[in-house]
């Protein structure tokens, strides 16, 4: 019978430091492999038995996963923030690789999902679009900052419009600042053009996925947010229910409890003391949290979520909690629609009274 070998890899731009243990934790070998496709393939072909591999999430993680996954039995890409053992004690590439092999063997690694190859292209296009949106916002802030630095008020969006730029340039009292502002305007125009091109490419790629037709029907989402969800989640079947999906989106309520049990007549009995809520979970996907919070703000403008939101407010729920409840509702609907392959039914949102906000 082939034995299981646990491979821990510390990934560098040029070299992989590899440590291999057997199922009993015995050190088998150490290797230094050039970080190239051919060398990595040749190395894994020399290892006999059932191979399990672990390395940390990073810039090269997606590429390594796609490269190694067909060659071995299991690949685990782990979250470096969860590896307290690696962060403690002495640290080096060899030590870290050994700790990864040990944690992999013990099943103590927090895995980062890398399973869907069909969304690789969409992931890249979504990331390109988001970077251009961030760069555009950064340039706009610099432009306003330049005007404010000379005491020129520039509230609103008029300062960006091409028709009014000549007027704004006339307010500049330093020639050098005028050159700076003109350069920022040129950057803004160029970034805006690139952003629109990136958006078109992203939406065209999203339309190739069957889920896109379902998700864009959900109130508040739209084509851009639907593309972001598909690129990030990959498949809805990663999550058994909405209870697992909410924490991934940063919408899971954290509760704490202590002193839950007491001994009555020599038998343990659970007290009726309620658990205390401590806000939302802190380890989450930032893109999805922004998507669903933005979707909630858009959805409450019209039906069916306008009525749903108003009922929450009427029941004395604070505005921020009511908006959070709408975001959780939209996230749950998104998961259900995607899993069932059914379009969003707006009539079902307000069928049941939702007075408490506890989705």
Structural overview:
The chain has 359 residues and is α/β, with parallel strands linked by helices. The protein folds into three domains: 4-106, Nucleotidyltransferase, domain 5; 119-208; 211-254 and 284-348, no CATH class. Helix content is 48%, strand content 14%. The protein is built from 13 helices and nine strands. The strands form three sheets. A five-stranded mixed β-sheet has the order 3-2-1-4-5. A two-stranded antiparallel ribbon has the order 6-9. A two-stranded antiparallel ribbon has the order 7-8. Strand 7 (261-264) and strand 8 form a beta hairpin. Helix 5 (120-148) runs antiparallel to helix 7. 26% of the residues are buried.
Which oligomerization state do the chains in this entry correspond to? single chain
Order of helices and strands: EEEHEHEHHHHHHHHEEEEHHH
The major β-sheet equals: 5 strands, mixed
State the share of residues found in helices, binned by percent: 40-55%
Q: In one word, what is the shape?
A: globular
- The number of strands is 9
What structural class do helix, strand and pairing data support?
alpha/beta
């Amino acid at each position: 019978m082939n034995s299981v070998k646990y491979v821990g890899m510390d990934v560098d731009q040029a070299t992989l430091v590899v440590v291999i243990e057997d199922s009993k934790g015995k050190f088998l070998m150490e290797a230094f492999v050039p970080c190239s496709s051919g060398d990595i393939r040749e190395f894994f072909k020399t290892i006999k038995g059932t191979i399990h591999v672990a390395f940390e999430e990073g810039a090269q993680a997606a590429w390594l996963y796609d490269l190694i996954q067909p060659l071995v039995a299991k690949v685990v890409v782990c979250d470096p923030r969860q590896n307290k053992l690696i962060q403690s004690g002495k640290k080096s590439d060899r030590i870290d690789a050994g700790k990864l092999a040990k944690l992999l063997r013990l099943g103590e690694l927090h895995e980062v999902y890398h399973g869907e190859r069909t969304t690789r292209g969409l992931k890249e296009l979504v990331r390109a679009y988001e970077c251009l949106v961030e760069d555009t916002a950064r340039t706009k802030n610099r432009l306003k900052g330049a005007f404010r630095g000379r005491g020129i008020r520039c509230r609103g969006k008029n300062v960006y419009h091409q028709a009014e730029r000549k007027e704004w340039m006339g307010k500049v009292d330093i020639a050098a600042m005028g050159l700076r502002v003109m350069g920022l305007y040129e950057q803004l125009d160029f970034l805006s053009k690139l952003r629109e091109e990136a958006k078109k490419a992203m939406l065209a790629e999203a339309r190739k996925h069957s889920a896109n037709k379902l998700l864009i029907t959900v109130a508040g989402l739209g084509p851009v947010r639907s593309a972001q969800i598909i690129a990030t989640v990959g498949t809805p079947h990663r999550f058994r229910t909405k209870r697992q999906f909410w924490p991934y989106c940063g919408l899971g309520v954290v509760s704490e409890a202590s002193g839950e049990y007491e001994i009555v007549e020599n038998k343990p009995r659970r007290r009726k003391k309620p658990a205390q809520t401590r806000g939302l979970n802190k380890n989450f996907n930032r893109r999805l949290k922004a998507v669903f919070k933005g979707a909630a703000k858009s959805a409450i403008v019209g039906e069916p979520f306008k009525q749903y939101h108003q009922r929450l407010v009427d029941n004395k729920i604070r505005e921020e909690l009511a908006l959070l409840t709408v975001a959780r509702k939209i996230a749950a609907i998104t998961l259900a629609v995607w899993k069932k392959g059914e379009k969003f039914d707006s009539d079902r949102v307000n069928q049941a009274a939702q007075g408490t906000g506890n989705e």
